[in-house]
User: Fold 4-hydroxybenzoyl-CoA thioesterase from Pseudomonas trivialis.
Amino acid sequence: MRAQNGDQSFVHRCRVYYEDTDAGGIVYYVNYLKFMERARTERLRELGFAQSTLAGEDLLFVVHSSEARYHSPARLDDELLVSAQVIELNRVSLRFKQQVRRATDATLLCEGQFLVACVRTDSLKPRAIPETLRAAFAAVSGAGKQSEQEI
Assistant:
């Protein structure tokens, strides 16, 4: 399913700590991926699904592919706003569009897309996203047409 433009935004707030920065005092590029991972996890939690509980139900979400574009650096003590919007919902995968913005001025720092697959915890083989979870994501993203593209 493709999400409609009426997506209910989700934003996770976080702070840049010393450990997130490189020798130049700016956020090391790979840490943006960590910020976005946390936002996806918090999006699940906001919908009522904790990753620890899902793992007990033989379900994990793993990143299948990622794409990131860096626009401007974040620095120590910056407060960040990290969005996590589902733009595609398939039988065994979700595609997230994410942005990292500086809270003080809304400057776009980094954006990306992540294809996240649902797999079994024991075998890491693809499995269908449970209907309750699909329904929760569909409710906040707006249901559209079925996508022909699966992982």
